[in-house]
Amino acid sequence: MTAVGRAGVGPSPAIEISGLTKSYGRHRALGGVDLRVREGEVFGFLGPNGAGKTTTIRVLLDHIRRDAGEVSVLGRDPRTDGVALRREVGYLPGELSMTSRRPARDMLAFYARLRGGVPRAHIDELAARLDLDLKRPVRGLSKGNKQKVGLVQAFMHRPRLLILDEPTSGLDPLLQQEFLAMVREAREAGTTVFMSSHVLSEVHDAADRAAIIRDGRIVATEDMDALRARAVHEFSIRFAEPLGPGDAAEFSALDNVREVRADGDQLTCRVEGSPDALVKLAARRTVLLLSAVEPDLEELFFTHYNNGAQDAGTRDASGGEG
Ligand SMILES: Nc1ncnc2c1ncn2[C@@H]1O[C@H](COP(=O)(O)OP(=O)(O)OP(=O)(O)O)[C@@H](O)[C@H]1O
Predict the structure, then answer these.
(1) Where is each ABC transporter domain found (predicted)?
(2) Ligand 1 atom having least distance to the Cα of 55
């Protein structure tokens, strides 16, 4: 596979990986990863702990060497072009080692120099957005504050590609929202964002596409709009009055509502896509409580396939060409 886009296929991808394998001793961490991230998209890299996300990312940055396979990042091979590449990439590691007694500002100034200079005002602006005090020594910072330093150093030089390993870990919900706003702005400015997570909700709103890695292999690649449109939620509704004998049937008759169970004043069911019809039907009665639980990651990805839409094996519902 080449680093350049094939004729007629559009611009070359920001990240292209094929047949990537990597073992640690006898333990095979990656068993043939194939992945293609388009320039300018936000791509979620999802998988449970130990699936191979960090290993893949470390190969992309040439922190570790692959055993076999082809890897191209912004059209370069990280093995031979690692130094040039690191200037164009903003990287947030999964585990940040911050042992210095120096203030966060000094650490960021050091990284800024390595990247050819970053306006101080820009660093200040990012720190203010994330509510990070740059005067405090990095060594004593909490996990969340270290994560903020990591995010500032990843974003501050406005890289062409952001590679973020579990970016929201340790951030409270308000800061997660701020981080997502930063991702959206970066995308609008043309940056490609590749971010890993073990939970779908973290990439749910931000990503254009997502892939699931499991046991060192990509098992599905999905368009997030399609995924969102058919997301199945489990709803639970409590009414002011007990439900009558015909009520469950009325809910079951809704197109996208399944597995309806009525018990006294309580109704539970599963809804694929928008809950609009369910909410409107429920609202004919007095609703005391309504809650929805998101299904787990794999269930969400595979409901579609389990309905017989695709064959087994590596499944790509995004049209094949990544
Ligand atoms: N330095 C190492 N030496 C030996 N085994 C390793 C090493 N790094 C990772 N592994 C193993 O390789 C597999 C993939 O690990 P990796 O860290 O890439 O997964 P991950 O998807 O990033 O998970 P997590 O979210 O837990 O970091 C795991 O089984 C892990 O135990």
Answers:
(1) 15-240
(2) 18
* Model pTM score: 0.80
Count of alpha carbons within 13 angstroms of residue 19, beta-carbon side: 5
Note whether residue 4 is domain-resident.
no
52 lines ligand 1 (CB under 6 A): yes
On whether both 195 and 238 belong to a single domain, the answer is: no
- Write out the residue range of the structural domain in which residue 106 sits: 15-228
Same domain as 251, residue 194: no
Query: Are residues 139 and 276 part of one domain?
Result: no
ipTM: 0.95
Ligand 1 pocket test, candidate residues 54, 64, 215, most atoms within 8 A of CB: 54
Do 249 and 264 fall into the same domain? yes
pLDDT digits (tens, 9 = 90+) for 126-178: 999 999 999 999 998 998 999 999 999 999 999 999 999 999 888 888 999 99
- Ligand 1 centre to CA of 54 (Å) is 7
pLDDT at 49: 87
Q: Which residues of the chain have pLDDT under 70?
A: 1-11, 295-322
